[in-house]
Amino acid sequence: MTRSERDLVVALRAELASIDPSRPCDRVAEAAGLGTSVGAREPAVARLAVRLRRAGEGTHPAAFDWPTAAEHCRTAWLRGRFLARGSLSLAGGRTHLEFVVAPDEAPVLAARLEEVGLPASWRLRRGRGVVTWKSGESVGTFLRRIGAAGALLELEARQVSRALRGELNRVLNAESANLQRAVAAAGRQLDAIAVLDADGRLQQQPYVVRLVADARRETPEATLAELAERLELHRSAVQRALERMERLAESEPAPPLGASDDASGMMRPHA
């Protein structure tokens, strides 16, 4: 994750930590979500814990009565749980949010998230429970729900910008590949025209083929569509003419009429 991305994550967490719930029950719920072990977290979260402890007395998460809690209290508890145990990664253009909790809490937390319409996967990792979202949409919905609207707008703007850059790079790469193919094809066509012109076979070709050959020599950088527009021909007719010249150039010219090679390589006249 780049420094800019880390700064965005810090700003997002600071925004969440600055929320001051107006309902006493929400303050108690958020304090319960934070729990008692937030000392290692950033200063904004530590200050939030001190502020909320006056209302919630540092209640342990297990004391929160989820089944009977109102929706706004559940949201406050989830916000506290994210600040205490959640992390957000934006590395490599992927949005990844996870909670690292006690092993027995992971399935409980996953069930609660599913209950509020945000199903998440969970697993055990090195003796800890990990509840995870890897869907940018799910992460965005969750962060918006718990109050990170400002930072989320910045996150979404960056994601859109990254997607646009990716699409632009894809288009540029495709255009570059097409250009390289066109240049290679034009080179083969010019070589074929030179071969046919040198051995006299070009002058034996139909008018359209000779017309296309002249246009290709005059404008080697032109695309098939541009040649067709210039000559007022269908694109397919131009393509057939160029392919005909390439095929002819790859074949040996026919021997002159009235003569053939004998086994010794000498010319033998007809009887």
In short:
The chain is of the alpha+beta class and 271 residues long. The chain is built from 10 helices and 6 strands; from the N terminus they run ααααββαββαααααββ.
Task: State which percent range the strand residues make up.
Answer: 5-15%
Structural category: alpha+beta
What's the total count of β strands? 6
CATH superfamily of the largest domain: Homing endonucleases
Largest sheet geometry: 4 strands, antiparallel
The CATH architecture designation of the largest domain is: Roll
Task: Provide structural commentary.
This protein has 271 residues and is of the alpha+beta class. The chain has two domains: 3-147, Homing endonucleases (Endonuclease I-creI, Roll); 168-253, no CATH class. Helix content is 60%, strand content 9%. It contains ten helices and six strands; from the N terminus they run ααααββαββαααααββ. Strands 1-2-4-3 form a four-stranded antiparallel β-sheet. A hairpin with a 6-residue loop joins β1 (86-89) and β2 (96-101). α8 (207-218) packs across α10 and α9 (224-231) packs across α10.
